[in-house]
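It is worth pausing here to work through a concrete case rather than discussing structure prediction in the abstract. The textbook approach is simple: state the sequence, then state the predicted structure, then interpret. We follow exactly that order.
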Amino acid sequence: MEGSRMEPKKKLIDAAGNRLDGRKWDELRPIRLEVGTVKNADGSAYIEWGKNKIMVAVYGPKEVHPKHQVLPDRALLRARYHMAPFSVDDRKNPAPSRREIEISKVTREALVPAVIVEDYPRTAIEVWIEVLQSDGGSRVAGITAASLALADAGINMRDLVVGCSCGIVDGQVVSDLDDTEDKEGQGDMPVAIMPNLNQVTLLQVDGIYSREQFQKAFELAIAKGREIYAMQREALAKKYFGGEAMTVQAEEEVSE
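Step two, the predicted structure:
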């Protein structure tokens, strides 16, 4: 894809290979996942990923409004990604921006393959993603939490969807770009997968990659997504199974 990036004004990776926040090239930021955080929603989840703080609520299956959008053979899945005005340094206009509309679209498209929409004809399933604090990689964090919220709502799913973003910083492929790396790096690649089915549901590329850089970033995003998948399973297990049964399964899948 086409995309222009400014050259970094400062070194983002030092001579020892450490990034600005002390991480190595392949390390994730700290991630915290919690399921069932919104009492009045059918399903919900909360994620802290680095400095990102995102709340997701799911409502449905429910009656479709307006009626002309009803799909006779499957559910209508809607997704809305929204950044709170206070989520960034400079106050954001509360009206949906072009970026938010685009992320809402790709989020829906990343989640649809996982949801068995055929089980809920003539209904709507709504996913509301509210970014309370943004720090780079909020689209993949939102997708990761949205998948948990759908599972918490009892929606039939083929697999959980998990996202991770990799990219190029100071000419090197790195995992999980933070806000500074996203803005001053040379490339960003958000990827979402269904790990148990080995299927990709989202792949976007910003910047210019060599064939080797693309392959390395893509494979790194999948590997890190599988690590986060284990965290998703653990978060569900903590609520529904006392934190034991699903965690063991997830660890086994990641090690295979």
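Step three, interpretation. Residues 245-256 have pLDDT under 50 and may be disordered. Residues 31-255 form a domain with the Ribosomal Protein S5; domain 2 fold (CATH 3.30.230.70).
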